[in-house]
Amino acid sequence: MNKPKVRVATCSLAGCFGCHMSFLDMDEAIIPLIEKIEFDRSPLTDIKSIGTCDIGLIEGGLCNEENKEVLHQFRQHCTLLVAVGACAINGGVPAMRNHFTVDECLEESYLNGLGVIDAQIPSDAELPKLLSKVIPLQSEVRIDYILPGCPPPPQAFLELINAIIEKREPVLDYHNRRFD
Ligand code: SF4
């Protein structure tokens, strides 16, 4: 009888989708992988709500209340949670705003920034409230694995997922890290 597939969910919080693009960069290596895994909630499937999963891959840190909500849903539904990339692990590029207040960031973006004309600070009630600082995932929930890099290279995703399936420690050596 065929072994049940490992169910994987992915999402991008305060990230740029570069980590998801790197995952897809594994090209034809995804064919044998897809024999072993199936996707749940993910931008790759466009499934919007998460079910019970074995692995949750999360790109990006936390910059607003909605990010926190999604992270807790992933923690609740995934056996193993992976912080994917520098933004998830330490805040990354979005955390550069931590040197300023939220008001200063909004004023620079929507009122005073170079080339900004006749704009206003968005205030729709549906917009998620910004956190005062961008924070990494592990400051909010338990994280089981990290995939370092910006973005982590495709082979790092492969190594981690295969290691979890084979119930061994992943080998994330120098070649499985990339910052470029
Ligand atoms: Fe983008 Fe790099 Fe952050 Fe990944 S780690 S979301 S590639 S900026």
TrEMBL record:
- Keyword hit for Iron-sulfur: yes
SUPFAM superfamilies, sorted:
HydA/Nqo6-like (SSF56770)
Q: Does the keyword Signal apply?
A: no
Co-factor(s)? [3Fe-4S] cluster
Residue ranges of domain NADH:ubiquinone oxidoreductase-like 20kDa subunit in the record: 16-163
Which InterPro entries does the record associate with it? Hydrogenase_assoc-protein (IPR051349), NADH_UbQ_OxRdtase-like_20kDa (IPR006137), NiFe_Hase_small_N_sf (IPR037024)
Q: Which GO terms describe its molecular function?
A: 3 iron, 4 sulfur cluster binding; oxidoreductase activity
Which keywords fit this entry according to its UniProt record? Answer: 3Fe-4S, Iron, Iron-sulfur, Metal-binding, Oxidoreductase
PANTHER family documented for this protein: COENZYME F420-REDUCING HYDROGENASE, GAMMA SUBUNIT, HYDROGENASE SMALL SUBUNIT
Its name, as the record gives it, is: NADP oxidoreductase
Gene source species: Ketobacter alkanivorans
Per the UniProt record, the lineage of the source organism begins with:
Bacteria, Pseudomonadati, Pseudomonadota, Gammaproteobacteria, Pseudomonadales
